[in-house]
């Protein structure tokens, strides 16, 4: 551990080696991915023809989470690190734990509902630690469920917020860059051909940042923070788009934000939100919850295989074959079709409940 100066104080940074930077960036990959299953499940739980506003808002945020995943991968490749979305601990166990200031909340895979919207707001909430000494807090043993935004160096401690977690990575990047330079070395020596650039990224979810030095690395990670929480505490990000937190807050408050609005007081048109026009899918399901030999278990296994293949495909794109990201688009449609095949069918033995996708490594569920 070392220290550096910020705002007049000597502050510790846990990232003092390339191995610690790799651990932090892998934790960032897991964190960005962990939001996608809850968003996709809520999105596809919506009845066809209803909730058009909610459908659009959730879809936009889910696409931008894919952008965030890609930006973290670009930083890793620029630093000569390898990206692997198929690692044993990559897919979280739900409900997962995330910090919201001094306390934690649970992130579940669940249908669209007021509770789901509250969870989405907690995920994206703009929260800054009140002091440097409270940026990283010791947590009690939380038992089962993946703990996200924890320190990879000391997993018993979690960051005050996702924003503080990324701030730690930015500090670590600056520290390592300066130290490498002092030693006559370069931190960013990765092959530029491994970068995912705009020609490979299909999205309306913001501009991809090709990373080749400290400035572009900080730019990529700052974009992630701003798209989630807003720029400098405002409701818009650096590109003038509404941040994730305030997109979701529109669902809670029932109105769109428009230019000139202040946080918590959207004055635009009303939103189309109907919490009853939703498939009542089961929450945080494991494959073993489905009866052996049942059609829904077979459908869940099929989705599980599709999802595992999707992660393997993304790994190839982030590990030297960026052109494969274009081929990921059809995989997104396959995931949608597999999820819809599940959520439109009743859960055996659970009256009034529908089947739900299982997001985990296929080999883990089948062992």
From TrEMBL:
Residues annotated as transmembrane: none
Domain spans labelled Iminophenyl-pyruvate dimer synthase: 25-252
Pfam families per record: Ferritin-like (PF12902)
Record's protein name: Iminophenyl-pyruvate dimer synthase domain-containing protein
Lineage, top ranks: Bacteria, Bacillati, Actinomycetota, Actinomycetes, Micromonosporales
């Amino acid at each position: 551990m070392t220290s550096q100066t910020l705002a007049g104080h000597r502050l510790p940074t846990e990232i003092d080696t390339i191995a610690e930077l790799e651990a932090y960036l892998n934790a960032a990959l897991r964190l960005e991915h962990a939001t996608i299953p809850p968003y996709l499940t809520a999105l596809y739980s919506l009845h066809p023809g209803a909730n058009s506003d909610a459908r659009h808002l959730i879809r936009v945020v889910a696409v931008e989470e894919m952008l965030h995943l890609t930006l973290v991968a670009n930083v890793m490749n620029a630093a000569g690190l390898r990206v692997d979305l198929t690692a044993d601990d990559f897919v979280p166990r739900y409900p997962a734990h995330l910090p919201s200031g001094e306390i934690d909340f649970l992130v579940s895979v669940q249908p669209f509902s007021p509770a789901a919207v509250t969870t989405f707001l907690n995920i994206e909430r703009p929260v800054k630690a009140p002091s440097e000494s409270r940026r990283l807090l010791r947590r009690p043993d939380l038992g089962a469920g993946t703990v996200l935004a924890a320190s990879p160096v000391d997993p018993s401690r979690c960051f005050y917020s996702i924003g503080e977690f990324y701030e730690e990575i930015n500090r670590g990047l600056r520290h390592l860059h300066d130290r490498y330079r002092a030693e006559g070395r370069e931190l960013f020596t990765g092959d530029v051909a491994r970068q995912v650039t705009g020609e490979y990224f299909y999205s309306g979810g913001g501009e991809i940042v090709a990373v080749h030095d400290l400035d572009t690395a900080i730019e990529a990670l700052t974009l992630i923070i701003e798209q989630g929480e807003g720029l400098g505490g405002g409701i818009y990000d650096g590109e003038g788009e509404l941040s994730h937190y305030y997109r979701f807050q529109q669902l809670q408050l029932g109105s769109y934000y428009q230019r000139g609005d202040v946080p918590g007081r959207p004055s635009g048109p009303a939103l189309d939100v109907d919490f009853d026009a939703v498939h009542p899918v089961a929450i945080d399901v494991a494959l073993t919850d489905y009866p052996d030999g049942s059609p829904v278990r077979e459908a869940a296994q099929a989705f599980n295989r599709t999802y595992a293949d999707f992660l393997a495909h993304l790994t190839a794109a982030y590990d030297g074959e960026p052109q494969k990201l274009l081929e990921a688009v059809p995989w997104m449609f396959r995931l949608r079709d597999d999820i819809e095949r599940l959520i439109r069918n009743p859960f055996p033995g659970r009256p009034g409940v529908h089947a739900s996708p299982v997001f985990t490594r296929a080999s883990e569920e089948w062992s």
